[in-house]
Amino acid sequence: MRLQIVTALAGVGLLFVLSPRSLGAADTAAPEAPVTGHVVNVAPNGALSLDREQCDLPVLSAKLKEFGALRLKPAIIIRSAETDYKYVMGVLDACKAAGLDNIAFATATPPETATPLWRQMQIAVLEKKDVAEVRRLLDAGFDPNGSIGCGDWPPLLGALNNVEMAQLLLERGAKVPDTAMLRACETYNLDMSLEELLVKHGGNVNASDPQTGETCLHEAVWHKNNELVKFLIASKNIHLNAVSQDGDLDGTPLMWALKDGVTDIAQLLVKAGTDTSIKGQTGITAADIIEERLAAYRDLKTAVASPASPSTVQSTTPPARDQVAGVYTRLVARTRSLAASANDSELLALIKPYDAADAPSLSGEALQDALKRLALDLLQLAKSNRNAQMIADEFAIKTSPSP
Length: 403
Prior knowledge:
Helix content: 40-55%
Distance between the termini: 84 Å
Order of helices and strands: HEEEEHEHEHHHHHHHHHHHHHHH
Shape: flat
Structural class: alpha/beta
């Protein structure tokens, strides 16, 4: 009987089985192949897990649909205790949508001895953060490079916030994947003990994201971590000129530092020998950014700022036409370049009416008016658009003070 099969799979007491076919005569015969089963836990707060891996309802629904597409559909055991019925109904609806009708309800929890070793390691590393338990599991034969769920995560990836645990795993033979180096560099800390430990055990200081090309040095610059930048620069064979390709965040670490205005880190990178002539994805070099910043701060103050209040975007004394034309041309070109590289539809729509090629044909008054309108448009969009805010910061465009 199907009821007996599900009971054996669950290993727990069953309240009832929801299966129209469980009462049919055809189901009394032995199955053609072993029937599999999957356990869905529904916590009192609605939290879900499938076969001991946490998930949300959309992920669970997708998995159930995969099960429903199988020729021999598996049994689904729903385990819940003191759980609001609406959470259980959500799971039942997902089972129904997946075409799964062999559903059982259970009330007991399998004994701890039945917990797989990988799951025990997952709990020890991610939940309990228990170094002694990790040592026990390694002694019991768990592979320090084995998966603890969460995709193909090894324990080390979950131990990066615990230097003692990371050291234990490394001493037991854990390898340092590039992902571990990148994650370590993503965390701002002044203590380099973790990074030093990873490098000592073979960590790659030039580890990079396979999709964006961002390296450990990029991450250190992004988090404005001067100490980590110094550590990486001092490392053997560090690649100072790696180029990332991530929308507006393209270029070398030096270009990142310049775009973000982190001059102290920029100085460290220049002194270390970074090449300022290397082009990013948009064709801009670090030298270009330096010159652009200098010109922007020099000219925009004259072209836009009021003599009485330097923070305004209006001017009571008209500046020289050539100065206005220079600022307008650079501002349009920079905005258009960033909008295209970042595929920013809002910024593309904003810059569309403006054309740097029009500058020579416009009168001084019309040119200054166009510059003011563009500056105000950027300020308005910058309230909700990061790229527009970046342009406003680069060109020192600020809001007018209240009268």
